[in-house]
Every structure is written in C-alpha cells, then in structure tokens.
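Re: the request from the purification team.
They wanted to know what the chain is likely to look like in 3D before they choose a buffer screen. I agreed to run a prediction and write the result into the notebook, where they can find it.
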Amino acid sequence: MSNQSVHTYTGDAPWTEEKARTELEWYQANKMGWKWKGGYFNCPLVLVDCDTLIGKVGLNPYDESEQVAQIEWTISEEHWHQGYATEIGRAILEYAFREGGFKRIVGFTTSRNMSARQVMKKIGMVHIGDQEHNNRKLCVFQIQRES
C-alpha cells in the first residue's frame, strides 16, 4: 500500500508505515471475519498458501437503504495480472448476494483504469454511467441479485 503505482487510480496517497500499522491493528482487533453491521466488511487480502499480505478488500455501505453495497479491492503491484482481482471480485459478489443479502452491488473506478473496468465486466458488472467525485471522473458499474 506504500507503492505509488497502487494508488494511481485510487485518489489516495501511498500509505505511510504508521497508516499501514493502524490498518493492520484494526484488522487484528476486528478479526473473526472482519465483518461489521449488515454484512459489510473490510479485511486484508492474504495469500493462504504462503501467508503473504497482498492487499485489502471490502464491501462498504453505499446507500441508506442497506440494500446496496460498494465493492472494493486493492492489490499490490507485484500481484497484478495474475487473476486475483477477478477471483476476489467473484468471491465478494457471491458473499454479498448469498450471505449479505444485498440486492445490488456497485463499483467505481476512474475512466482511465482499464484493468479495473475489465475486471468488473468479467465478474458480471455492467457500466451504468459516469459521475464526478472529488474532481475525478468515475465509471460506475453495478450488478443486481438474480431474483
């Protein structure tokens, strides 16, 4: 998370060691699924076979109805283009619909982030338009639970 390339499209600054420690302490204090209110979660992304931290994932509140959630994932640069984002995206969607009970999931990325746009398409999300947020043009994707 301290790598500038990881944050090219996030709008966030690379993490300092203090920020990383704070995040990891929160994850540790809130383990057991890192789940919080209503099926939302934020947790580290760890490769199980080698116990290596490679990023973070989450399902966050999007609207007040609690029927729609926002998907997110951030993966370290050395693990890009290996299928992790697609695998994680599909797993999050499966959880969101089956366990979380959400009716719709949205995702955002900048218009220039072609890799993230492609991953969202691969996992079944559809581009529904663009919006401005903090002086950045964001592409909005969504997927709805099958009835």
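For the purification team: The chain has three helices and seven strands.
Please add any questions underneath this entry.
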